[in-house]
């Protein structure tokens, strides 16, 4: 229970990578706040289940990550945090000249601007305690690019840059900021991409997974949410106290190519 006494907020965490990170932080003893834009009985039941499974306080707080005021209110309603994991994200695939403007705006708001707002709201409390961890879930697409994903690639590159700036502004204050850059992880957001990619490439599901998605992932396997969560827990540990302003790729060798 290395993180006992620490409060962690994980945005976009009622499924996928965010939920995987929340679970691993809870296993490590942190009090956890999970989040999404919905507010259903299932959301609160999920928080209760995590609390029962891991013996730590877990709350669900609704906040729409496309709205700056909601992002900042999430931090306030949680009572601040020691660990902030900016994970919320959406995806849309289209050529640049056909990319819907409203989709561009939503992706930039949720994938990038939300991290700015939550970080800005969380840092004063971290500084007051002299300890904090900001972990931004970027992507292999924060370090490289793919066609038809202009908004996502732009946002994730921005997340990497924001992580570096946050790290520099917090250097020497007991606060670190890093970006985890996963390759393909089989989550709901990736599942939704598969039919679009099937249409774009006129391929079967199996061929899209093997020849499009995992063609750039030399390991030939999807990363798991548990692996991303474990990386986040490591970044919160004393062993990672001097790791700041950098990226950690969990991508099966994608960015080594």
From TrEMBL:
Q: What InterPro entries does the entry give?
A: 3-OHbutyrate_DH, NAD(P)-bd_dom_sf, Sc_DH/Rdtase_CS, SDR, SDR_fam
Recorded GO MF terms: 3-hydroxybutyrate dehydrogenase activity
Instruction: Note the coiled coil stretches, chain numbering.
Output: none
Gene3D superfamilies listed in its UniProt record: NAD(P)-binding Rossmann-like Domain
Q: Which PROSITE patterns match?
A: ADH_SHORT
One GO term under biological process is: monocarboxylic acid metabolic process
What Pfam families does the record tag this protein with? adh_short_C2 (PF13561)
Entry's family note: Belongs to the short-chain dehydrogenases/reductases (SDR) family.
Question: Which PANTHER family does the UniProt record give?
Answer: 3-OXOACYL-(ACYL-CARRIER-PROTEIN) REDUCTASE, 3-OXOACYL-[ACYL-CARRIER-PROTEIN] REDUCTASE FABG
Q: What is the name of this protein?
A: 3-hydroxybutyrate dehydrogenase
Q: Which organism was this protein described from?
A: Gemmobacter megaterium
């Amino acid at each position: 229970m290395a993180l006992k006494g620490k409060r962690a907020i994980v945005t976009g965490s009622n499924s996928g990578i965010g939920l995987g990170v929340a679970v691993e932080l809870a296993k490590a003893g942190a009090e956890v706040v999970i989040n999404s834009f919905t507010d259903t009985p299932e959301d609160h039941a999920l928080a209760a289940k995590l609390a029962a499974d891991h013996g730590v306080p877990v709350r669900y707080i609704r906040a729409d990550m496309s709205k700056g005021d909601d992002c900042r209110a999430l931090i306030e309603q949680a009572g601040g945090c020691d660990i902030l994991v900016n994970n919320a994200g959406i995806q849309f695939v289209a050529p640049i000249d056909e990319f819907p403007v409203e989709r561009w705006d939503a992706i930039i708001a949720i994938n990038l601007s939300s991290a700015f707002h939550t970080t800005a709201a969380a840092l004063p409390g971290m500084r007051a305690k002299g300890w904090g961890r900001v972990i931004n879930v970027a992507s292999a697409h924060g370090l490289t690019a793919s066609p038809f994903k202009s908004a996502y690639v732009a946002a994730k590159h921005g997340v990497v840059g924001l992580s570096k700036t946050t790290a520099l502004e917090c250097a020497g204050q007991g606060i670190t900021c890093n970006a985890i850059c996963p390759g393909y992880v089989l989550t709901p957001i990736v599942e939704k991409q598969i039919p679009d990619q099937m249409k774009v490439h006129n391929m079967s599901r199996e061929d899209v997974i093997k020849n499009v998605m995992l063609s750039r992932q030399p390991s030939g396997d999807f990363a798991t949410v548990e692996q991303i969560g474990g990386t986040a827990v490591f970044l919160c540990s004393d062993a990672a106290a001097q790791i700041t302003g950098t990226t950690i790729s969990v991508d099966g060798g994608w960015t080594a190519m």
